[in-house]
Amino acid sequence: MEFLSFETVAIDGTKLRAQNSTNNIYTRKEIDNVKLRIEKKITEYLAILDEEDKKEGDLQLKEDQVEKILKRLENARKHRDKVDRIKGQFEKDQELEKVFDTDPDSRFQSDKGKVRAGYNPQAAGDSKHNLLITNDVTNQSNDLNQMTPMIKKINDIKEELEISKKTNALFDAGYFNEVEIMGNKDNDQVNILVPSVAQSRESNNKCRSKQSKEKIPME
Fold it and tell me: Per residue in 194-207, pLDDT tens?
């Protein structure tokens, strides 16, 4: 239906938050301290319950308060079991430094000034009708090594659709990696267009300057 031209394709990455909260990220450096804190809590809960048992009929805690302590004790023991399992992962793999327990494949991503567990999805859009033609997901925190995988995906789609003409592939400065560029500069299906960081900064400065001038009210 000729919705796609494959004359120009723009590629960019975004951020996708993982299910993994910060509380479920454990580091080798802190895992022992985490277990000590849990053990301390368990000891405190048990001490409170033991003290109540000794008082027999002269109880100070109400039934619902005791239930809350028992629930916290149960949760602390479950947390301790999880920490023991994670400690086993660190002991098994000496190169492992962080465990993202809820979403193991996620990694730290910088997104709008915040660092969260997540992914770095990649998307390629065709310029004719702004339709996405392919996508990918990586847990790498930047786009420096994503040029080659995305070019391969674009070429695979072109081969599937039997499109032989060369495509201009637009990348932003986040993809500027000399190794990636040199590895793809002679690609017979894709012509790479990617600015350096300096070129991108200069262009952004010009845009900001132009926008600033346009905001000045006319007398």
Answer: 998 888 777 777 67
